[in-house]
Amino acid sequence: MIGTELHVTRDGARLRVALSPSAGRPTLVLLHGITDGAATWGRVAERLAGRYSLVMPDARGHGGSSRITGTIDIATLVDDAAAVLDHIATGPVLLWGHSMGAETAARLAGARPDLVRAAVLEDPPFHDAPPAESAGGDDDPHLAAFVELLHSVGDMTPEQRMAMARGSNPGWHDDELVPWADTKADFDTAALTLLDGGLGRDWRAAVAAIACPTLLVTGDAGAIVTPEVAAEAAALAPTARVVRIDGAGHSVHRDRFDATVAAVTSFLRDVAAD
């Protein structure tokens, strides 16, 4: 549910930001994962419409934002997100990020506490795998197949994309499938360099720098964040709490939509009550 959009320019990149405003309500910024886009928050936006004023940026290389020129790393994404928040100038906001967006949210909360009131980190890439392993490695067949799909999805018909999305994500609601597939067609594969050991690096320092209330959301069916990592993250950030959603993998809110939204909104209500 997107009402309008704006564009923010930083360091030569034009960043598209989708908006679903709600006057007088708290601002909630939704940061998507790698290969996704603002459009993939559509079902969440529809559920939360009227309760929050929603801001959904496309990261550079994704959706309607500029393609990648030069190098890109997590610091670039953090600075981009900060530029968006400085532009909208609503004061400290609520953040909800998934995967790459969750790490962006965590690092932004630590680096710019003036901008962030609270953060929801949905299965960020926090792990202790060596860089080659965390990137999948050159011989990882799953990563290789996904990269091949990304290169071919732009040539697919809408029907082929839908079939691909349904086959890849059989448990998802239909409303999740079209934006997931369409954002793959809009993705600049140059952004895959983020997977080359960059995401998740030095995650402990990033978490320890967070002072605002934080909810770490993960799953028990193939999520990146293990129970051990979740416990360590909670110890590093005393303001953090952890929720583990039964039956969810890495895409927690798409795997178990109602349970995830309930957990997140409960946390945000607690933040508002403090």
Radius of gyration: 17 Å
Uncertain runs: 130-137
Strands across the major sheet, in which order? 1-2-4-3-5-6-7-8
Give the rounded overall mean pLDDT.
91
Name the structural class: alpha/beta
- What general form does the structure show? globular
Q: Please state the oligomeric state of the protein chains shown.
A: single chain
- The amount of helix comes to 40-55%
Main beta sheet: 8 strands, mixed
Topology as a string of helices (H) and strands (E): EEEHEHEHEHHHHHEHEHH
Number of distinct helices: 11
- Count of distinct strands: 8
**How far is the first residue's CA from the last residue's CA?**
29 Å
What proportion strand? 15-25%
GO molecular function, one term: hydrolase activity
Domain AB hydrolase-1: 28-263
Pfam families: Abhydrolase_6
Protein name: Alpha/beta hydrolase
Characterization of this structure:
It is a single chain. By secondary structure, the protein is of the alpha/beta class. 40% of the residues lie in helices and 18% in strands. It is built from eleven helices and eight strands. It has an eight-stranded mixed beta sheet, sandwiched between helices. The model is unreliable at 130-137 (pLDDT under 50). Pfam families: Abhydrolase_6. Keywords: Hydrolase. InterPro entries: AB_hydrolase_1, AB_hydrolase_fold, Carboxylesterase_BioH. GO terms for molecular function: hydrolase activity.
Set down the secondary structure blueprint.
Blueprint (H helix, E strand, L loop, with lengths): L3 E7 L2 E8 L6 E5 L10 H7 L4 E5 L16 H15 L4 E6 L1 H12 L4 E7 L8 H4 L6 H12 L5 H11 L5 H12 L17 H6 L5 E6 L7 H10 L3 E6 L6 H4 L1 H17 L1
Parallel strand pairs: 3-4, 3-5, 5-6, 6-7, 7-8
Antiparallel strand pairs: 1-2, 2-4
GO molecular function: hydrolase activity
Protein name: Alpha/beta hydrolase
Pfam family, one: Abhydrolase_6
